């Protein structure tokens, strides 16, 4: 619900933020995550239980002078989610954008 409420704000964000290269308009990260999202959306193992959200700013949006984004992936079957991610990683590594941004896969980021 919070994300749905934020969309109109993001769409109306002043051009000055875009011109300044502020976090919502980091083009490399955004382009990379959009490409990764498309990869997951067309993944052959994807089913009606697979849930994908983002790209979104990370909870700690700026860390170490870098802006951070995230894609959230969920599936009720942990093994199915692991298969989807494991099969996607080689394709992600081959994307030209993957060499222009720092990225990683964090499984269960809320776990200890």
TrEMBL record:
InterPro entries from the xrefs?
A: PriA_C (IPR041236)
Q: Does the keyword GTP-binding apply?
A: no
Which controlled-vocabulary keywords does the entry list? ATP-binding, DNA-binding, Nucleotide-binding
Q: Where is the Primosomal protein N C-terminal domain?
A: 27-109
GO terms (BP aspect) = DNA recombination; DNA replication initiation; double-strand break repair
Reply yes or no: does the keyword Transmembrane apply.
Answer: no
A Gene Ontology molecular function term for this protein is: ATP binding
- What's one Pfam family the UniProt record gives for this protein? PriA_C
Protein name, as recorded: Primosomal protein N C-terminal domain-containing protein
- PANTHER family referenced in this protein's UniProt entry, alphabetically: PRIMOSOMAL PROTEIN N (PTHR30580:SF0)
Coiled coil spans: none
